[in-house]
Design brief:
The protein has 278 residues and is α+β, with helices and mostly antiparallel strands. Helices cover 24% and strands 38% of the residues.
């Protein structure tokens, strides 16, 4: 069995978010997949099973748990397949629904794009919001008053927490165990998207990921998609629009995620990925 290692949402192996990729996982069960993901230690590892021409089933495992959907591991999988078999389209069956994955060559680089499931945005209980801010060690004065804390879904539920300036984002120092317990109680299995708006369509982000056993995610495609859905729902953008999310610089792995925001339907998440040398 070949376990590939890619960095997604970057063009250099020392940037972006590392992902494991197993392109032929038909012989593995969930216990095997979880053990492999734990051994690799990346935020997620993607496993392709039941592949047929133009379609496949994919599962995602973090070091401590299976997750329903993962943007960066999907992008990495697309690039891995394109390098071996050429560019094209693949319809993925995921635990959250169908994901359309397209790869293409742009100049001398391979790029991948995925279209998420239909997003939704909803409010957050006041007491839960209070505990979330407590565990993030953020005060009300740290928040961007124009962008309220909400829950946004584009494959995973992500609390969107917008802070007022870059210094607050840089100084983020959260209670790992407290946030992990809160997220487990709420059924939030992915990251918290702590973001700062630098211009109407450009954001910086940091993504704590306690449910997966990861301190901080360097690039989170599903969170970027959820942010795009949040901005559309609140009429902060005029679709069609393109959102750019910068992430990972605070953990030494800078990344850039591009999100296409249509007037209706799923978000389009795009980026590159490169092999991580052995």
């Amino acid at each position: 069995m070949e376990i590939l290692r890619y960095a997604a949402f970057t063009h250099t192996p020392d940037g972006g978010n590392p992902a494991g990729v197993v392109l032929d996982a038909d012989h593995l069960d969930a216990t095997d997949m979880q053990a492999i993901a734990a051994r690799i230690g990346y935020a997620e590892t993607a496993f392709i099973v039941r592949r047929t021409p133009g379609a496949a089933t994919i599962r995602y495992f973090a070091p401590e748990a299976e997750v329903p959907f993962c943007g960066h591991a999907t992008i990495a999988t697309g690039i891995a397949l394109a390098e071996r078999e050429g560019t094209g389209r693949l319809l993925l069956s995921t635990p959250v629904g169908r994901i359309d994955l397209v790869t293409d060559r742009v100049g001398d680089r391979l790029m991948a794009s995925l279209v998420t499931v239909e997003p939704r945005v909803e409010g957050i209980d006041g007491a839960v919001r209070g505990r979330l801010l407590q565990h993030l060690r953020l005060a009300e004065g740290d928040l961007d008053a124009d962008l309220p804390v909400l829950l946004s879904y584009a494959g995973n539920v992500h609390p969107i927490v917008a802070v007022r300036d870059a210094a607050v984002l840089r100084n983020l120092d959260y209670d790992y165990e407290g946030l992990k317990a809160l997220m487990a109680a709420q059924g939030w299995g992915a990251t918290v998207a702590v973001v700062h708006r630098t211009s109407p369509l450009v954001f910086e982000a940091r993504n704590p990921f306690p449910p997966g056993g990861v301190r901080e995610d360097p690039a989170t495609g599903s969170a970027a998609a959820s942010l795009g859905a949040y901005l559309r729902e609140r009429a902060e953008v005029a679709p069609p629009a393109t959102l750019t999310v910068h992430q990972g610089g605070d953990v030494g792995r800078p990344s850039v995620i591009t999100v296409g925001i249509p007037a209706t339907g799923g978000m389009t998440v795009s980026g590159g990925a490169v092999r991580i040398p052995p």
